[in-house]
Specification:
GO molecular function, one term: DNA-binding transcription factor activity
Strand content: 5-15%
Oligomer: single chain
Keywords: DNA-binding
Largest sheet: 3 strands, antiparallel
Number of domains: 2
Shape: globular
Distance between the termini: 74 Å
Organism: Streptomyces natalensis ATCC 27448
Radius of gyration: 23 Å
Protein name: MerR family transcriptional regulator
Strand order of the largest sheet: 3-5-4
Number of strands: 5
InterPro entries: DNA-bd_dom_put_sf, MerR-type_HTH_dom, MerR_fam
Length: 248
């Protein structure tokens, strides 16, 4: 169980909770040992992807039950082996209303809750909330603790989401046009893709996975350096102007 939780990027406690909710099938047992396999890992990644898209655990459970009963929702859930693993490594967080209030105190207003649900940061599951990302939750909490209003954090998050979507479109177009065209020169209209084609696509994309993240992190770091340096220079000039005025 610990190995599966680590591979899926969740805690053992979260994995036990999913088992209790029957969101993953039971493991194969040999005596006191429970064995999990790639099917369990794929199911956990599917749950994470659906939570990220705003689905509740209750809704996910209904969809999984429908799939296992033979109804045609497999494509919707992505329970078949995915072409490539999810790019996101985010871990969802379950929160009671009291725990959510501990993070944001007086900033928990109907307007901010509505905005969080609209952006997709929060989903409601029964009497609890599910936040799509531990890292985003921690960053939002720290910003609010430093004095940034939650409404401003959420608006910034909305803008970051739009820029992130634009960056993803840019990198996807680059990969599709200049990389996958070489891997698969034949278009889908020439012939149907073979398992070998699918394997080459998955392998190529997996190797490219770190590059967009590295480019964005490097550019953002340098942009922050430029902006902070400019802000400090402007502040120093303003201080100098005030001193000159007093001296005159």
């Amino acid at each position: 169980m610990a190995e599966l939780a680590k591979e899926a990027g969740i805690t053992v406690r979260t994995l036990r909770f999913y088992r209790e909710r029957k969101l993953i099938p039971p493991p194969r047992r040999e005596g006191r040992i429970a064995w999990y396999n790639e099917h369990h890992l794929a199911r956990l990644r599917t749950i994470g992807a659906l939570l990220e898209r705003g689905h509740t655990l209750g809704g996910i459970g209904e969809l999984l039950a429908a799939f296992e009963s033979g109804r045609d929702v497999g494509e919707l859930l992505g329970l078949d082996a995915p072409l490539v693993p999810p790019w996101s490594e985010e871990t969802p967080v379950r929160l009671t209303p009291e725990e959510l209030a501990d993070h944001f105190r007086d900033d928990i207003t109907p307007e901010n809750l509505t905005a969080s649900l609209d952006i997709g940061y929060l989903a409601v599951d029964g009497d609890e909330f599910v936040h799509i990302s531990r890292r985003l939750l921690d960053a939002s909490t720290e910003l609010v603790n430093k004095g940034v209003p939650l409404a401003a954090v959420l608006e910034a998050g909305r803008q970051v989401r739009a820029h992130a979507d634009a960056l993803a479109d840019l990198f996807t177009a680059l990969i599709r046009t200049h990389v996958l065209a070489d891997v698969l020169p034949a278009t889908p209209t020439d012939r149907p893709p073979t398992p070998q084609d699918v394997g080459r696509i998955a392998d190529t994309i997996d190797k490219l996975r770190p590059l967009p993240k590295g480019v964005v992190e490097a550019e953002l770091s340098m942009a922050m350096d430029r902006r902070i340096r400019r802000e400090i220079e402007q502040w120093l000039r303003a201080c100098g102007d005030e001193e000159d005025g007093e001296g005159g």
